[in-house]
Amino acid sequence: MEDRVLLGNEELKKRLSMSFRSGKQSHCYLICGPEGSGKRTLAAYMSQALQCEGQPVPCGQCDGCRKVKGGVHPDVIVVDDSEKKSVQVAQIRQVQEDAFIRPNEGKKKIYLIPRAHLLTEQAQNALLKLIEEPPHYAVFLLLTANAEKLLPTVRSRSVELRMEPVPFEAAAVWLQANAGGADLQTLRAAHLRCGGFLGQTLQYLTGEDAFPLMADFVRAYADNDRYGITAVFAFMEKLPRDKLLKSLTALKRLMTEALAVRAGTVGSADAMALARRRTAPELADAAKALQTAMDRCAANIGAGHICGLLAATL
Ligand SMILES: [Zn+2]
User: Residues with Cβ within 5 Å of ion ligand 1?
Assistant: First the structure.
């Protein structure tokens, strides 16, 4: 497991440390950003700051900080069940009951909802009641790649925190330490390909997101071979959802990189092949279509529908 530090995002950190110093926190934060952009790292940082007994917060040394870091703080409660496709109202009702019990040992009671876009409408309405009149010690951290999935009423009562890409200069040392000895040029290309989001960059560098049909896709898409493109998406349609999302992410990254190549940077052989044969508007449209597909995949829309649409548009 890589060392979890929140790099970059300077504006966000400044804003938060000011509110932590003044003790004027919100009761509900909506942490937004794509996969691998540091949402969980930010949530861990905030949880430490909220439970910290030292100075300056988070000190990283006190009992509160250490327990949050180790994932064993009894007053940081994760509301999720990865076996389920959605976060249901029954889970929020449990939170409602639990929220009336004071913290065990911490200063706050923190409820972390890592897949907030999967809250059902009923669950969101139950949550809304809670964030409208929360106990003074309760803080809710809602994480999502897609804030549009949440009811406007929930969003309007939350402070929205947006994860930003991290500039390469701020990330290079960390990437070098965590990406198993890749050289600077490889790191820079990977960072560019992943839009400056470090979790994604690391996943890409360590090969956790390999897409088995990448070569077939590159050839088919460069040649605008409709039959070849359809065959790739027919294969993707049968992947389990987590693999499908990873494959879509890999394709979206490739389009982003090919666009950058067209704008004059150096990229991987795959990206250069696409950039030679496809126009910038075509690549931009493809990146957009893939992003929409990723959002739909995360929202549990059927793989057949997602892949069918992509085969027809790309
Ligand atoms: Zn501390």
Answer: 52, 54, 59, 62, 65
106 and 64 in contact (C-beta within 8 Å)?
A: yes
Query: Does the domain at residues 10-162 carry the CATH identifier 3.40.640.10?
Result: no
Q: How far is the CA of 275 from the centre of ligand 1 (A)?
A: 49
pLDDT one-digit tens code per residue, 201-250: 988 888 765 677 888 899 999 999 999 999 999 999 998 888 898 899 88
Q: How far apart are CA 241 and CA 261, in angstroms?
A: 30
Task: Collect all residues with Cβ–Cβ distance below 8 Å to 291 and sequence separation of at least 6.
Answer: 252
> What's the CA-to-centroid distance between 249 and ligand 1, angstroms?
36
The predicted-structure confidence for 257-298, as pLDDT tens digits, reads as follows: 899 989 888 777 888 999 999 999 999 999 999 999 999 998
Tell me what pLDDT residue 2 has: 37
pTM, entire model: 0.73
Distance separating alpha carbons of residues 6 and 9, to the nearest angstrom: 8
Question: Which pLDDT belongs to residue 210?
Answer: 66
Collapsing DSSP states into helix, strand and coil, what is residue 161?
strand
How many C-beta neighbours within 10 Å does residue 206 have? 15
Contact 18, 28 (CB under 8 A): no
In angstroms, what is the span from residue 177 Cα to ligand 1's centroid?
25
The 3-state DSSP composition of the chain as helix, strand, coil percent (nearest 5) reads 55, 10, 35
Residue partners of 73: CB distance under 8 A and separation at least 6: 47, 51, 64, 67, 106
Residues in the chain with pLDDT values less than 50: 1-3
Tokens of 72: 């064993």
